[in-house]
Amino acid sequence: METFKKKHKYVKLLTSILIVVVLFIINQSEATIWKATPNFLNWIFVKNKDYNILLNLSIGYVISYLFYIMVNYFPELQNSIEKEQENVYLRIARHREVQLLLYDLSSVWGDIFLYSKQNGIINDDISLEQHFNFETLCKILPHINLLAPAFEIEGYERKILWVEKLEVDIERFTKDANVFLTRYKDMPPSNLYYKIFYLCNNSFLVGQLPILLRPAIYLYSENTNLGHAIRTENLKDDINKTFSYIIELDKWFFREINEINKYANDEDKITSMYSFVKN
């Protein structure tokens, strides 16, 4: 549908011109269209001068417009709708995999934000954009001790350390992201593909974070915090880009729900939601 919209992006302009042209043709008509024409409408319904050349051009424009609408616009619109209906289940599958990627990211940064809320480092009532903010990150990082327990898991005697949790969660994200990049590389929009590629392969807050953790522990031993691994003063551009891509990925997820539900059958429509930031 996006390809169709781009191809016919001037249809509204052409239709607006058509209205003006039709009014001009009415004005040049020899027939009496409205006998008791109000004075303020004389410029439309009362012929004052002959503009034969413009009249012929106007009639040609109407014919060309009708030809365009009947031969190009409506058939391509119908084909686009049918194609969207055919692709809806592939889009549902892709949407589900983006949801898994967001879950993976939430297991990393959502849990860090949750820990920060529980320990009074950040406020409870801030938005997603305020969570993914450079200043907020700088406030949080020194409080995440990589060799301290992250969360206690019921049934397990050994507590999971932050460094272990981050490594496992990010490994899961990169595996899921690489599957996504392989399966959907030919599906638009390409900017969605690039954002996931960047998070997986370039971002030092996500895909490249594990290579920073162990060296930091080697240098700072038991006192190592996440701020020792993520040197914010050197990575500000990457941090801001990573945060903007995660936010845009989250917004795409919710926009895509509306697009999918336009074409999906009632039983296949997406109704379940999720929250990236945990409470």
UniProtKB/TrEMBL annotation:
Q: Which residues cross the membrane?
A: 55-74
Q: What is the lineage of its organism?
A: Bacteria, Bacillati, Bacillota, Clostridia, Eubacteriales
Name this polypeptide is given: Phage abortive infection protein
Q: Which key words tag this protein in UniProt? A: Membrane, Transmembrane, Transmembrane helix
